[in-house]
């Protein structure tokens, strides 16, 4: 698997800084329930509060986190702008219990956004490539060491007493 020197993690993953498990709640920070990260504040690289994590989007076919959905602006969820942030653009700061985005606030302010009733097609390669480019990143699916999906015949599972209903 490829290594990302910027974040100190496997390519495509979010970085982790801080004292780790000494400051993280639960089993984290390396493996965490997605809902424990929702609501975390996101700071830009110039230390501006740019919003909160609203959702975490999975690429089901690869088994990876593709994006964090950031809620920015608005008040009590009204009038907020939603932004898809490539997961690799984020670093979890366990000391602050927040994420740090790899770009300054003005890049976030000028990012393409959407509203809660009109989500983009996250699977559209053209849209996703443009989004990654906005944040100065290569799309996560083009990184070195990515596992290729190869069509293989379905293999019957071994039978057991449990699977046979005995």
Automatic annotation (TrEMBL):
It comes from the Bacteria. Residues 30-107 form the PRC-barrel domain. InterPro entries: PRC-brl_dom (IPR027275), PRC_barrel-like_sf (IPR011033). This is PRC-barrel domain-containing protein. The lineage of its organism: Bacteria, Pseudomonadati, Pseudomonadota, Betaproteobacteria, Burkholderiales.
